[in-house]
Amino acid sequence: MKPGLRKYVCDLTLDLNTVNRLLSLSEENRKVTCRKGLKQLYPDHPERFVSCRQVLCREGLTGRCYWEVEWSGRGAGIGVTYKGISRRGWGDDCGIGYNDKSWSVYCSGNSYYAWHNNKSTTIDVPPSSSHRVGLYLDWPAGTLSFYRVSSDTLTHLNTFYTTFTEPLYPGFRVDDVDSFGDLWGLGSSVSLCQTSHTHTHTHTTHTGHTLTEHKHTH
Q1: CA 134 from chain center: how many Å?
Q2: What is the pLDDT confidence band of residue 215, given thresholds at 50, 70 and 90?
Q3: Do residues 55 and 65 lie in contact, with contact meaning Cβ atoms separated by under 8 Å?
Q4: How much is the CA Rg of the chain, to the nearest whole Å?
Q5: Which residues lie across from 179 on neighbouring strands?
Q6: Which residue has the higher pLDDT, 41 or 218?
Q7: Cβ of 90: how many Cβ atoms within 10 Å?
Q8: GO cellular component annotations, sorted alphabetically (predicted)?
Q9: Which DSSP helix (H) or strand (E) runs through 115?
C-alpha cells in the first residue's frame, strides 16, 4: 500500500441486516458470496435488500477513508451509497450505481465500468490478473476514486466528482453463477481485504491532510 494512503485506512464490516438472502457472509462478515438457488434464513429487516443481490457495510463514512476489496467469479459491483437507497424490487432505485444516491464501478474479467445515476462509462485500462480494487473517499472534497491494486501498484480506474451530503456506506452487488459455474452453485464473491493499519474514526471528517504520495497510472 502507498504510504500516503495508509493513514486513511478504515476497518469495515458487512452488515448482516442488509444482505440479500441469496448471498452468504463468511470470514467474520468480511466476505460475501452468491449461492445460486440457496436462500439464507435471514430474518426480515427493513434495511435488507429483498431482490437485488447486494450488501452494505455497517460503517457510514464522512471523512477521508481508504479500503480495498477483492472480487472473484463472474463479476461484481463495488461502490458506495447513501443509506436511503431503496431495498425492495429490481428497479434503478435499488441498484448501487443506478441512481443519484450511489456510485460504483462494475468489474468483470478485465472490463471495468463506472456507474452513477444509471449512466455508465467504459474504463479503458490495460489487462491484468489482479482482482483487487482500492477505493479512496475524500468526503469533504467530494471525490471518490477507484484503483486497481497489483503488487502495491495503483492503476487509476475512475474518479467521481460531486458534493456529498450524507454519510456513505460501502456496498457490493454480487453476480449470480453463470452456466459454467461449479456444481455447488457458487457465484461471485467480494472480500474486504485486511490492511496493515486501521483507524476507527470512520464517522468523523478528517482535516489537515492531503494525499500527495500516490500517482495515477493510465
Answers
A1: 9
A2: very low
A3: no
A4: 16
A5: none
A6: 41
A7: 10
A8: cytoplasm
A9: strand 111-116
- Cα 187 to Cα 195: distance, rounded to the nearest angstrom: 25
Contacts of 177 (CB under 8 A, 6+ apart): 34, 36, 73, 74, 185, 186, 187, 188
At residue 6, the pLDDT reads: 77
Question: Is 218's pLDDT higher than 70?
Answer: no
Residue type, 193: C
Listed range (71-75, 88-92, 180-184) with the worst mean pLDDT: 180-184
d(CA 166, CA 198): 22
State the residue for C-alpha cell 456513505.
Answer: 168
Residue 183 has pLDDT above 60, yes or no: no
Instruction: Determine the length of the chain.
Output: 218
Of the candidates 4, 38, 43, 8, the residue with the CA atom closest to the CA atom of residue 24: 38
Give the SS3 label for residue 66: strand
Are 87 and 123 in contact by the 8 Å Cβ rule? The answer is: no
Sequence-separated (6 or more) residues with CB below 8 Å from residue 94: 49, 51, 52, 54, 85, 86, 87, 88
Which residues, 6 or more positions from 114, have their beta carbon under 8 angstroms from its beta carbon? 104, 105, 120, 121, 123, 146, 157, 158, 160
> 178 vs 187, 194, 216, CA distance in Å?
7, 29, 34
pLDDT tens for 109-127 read 999 999 999 999 999 999 9
**Parallel, antiparallel or unpaired: strands 132-138 and 143-150:** antiparallel
C-alpha cell of residue 35: 449461492
β-partners of residue 14 are 57
Compute the distance between CA of residue 35 and CA of residue 23 in angstroms, rounded to an integer.
6
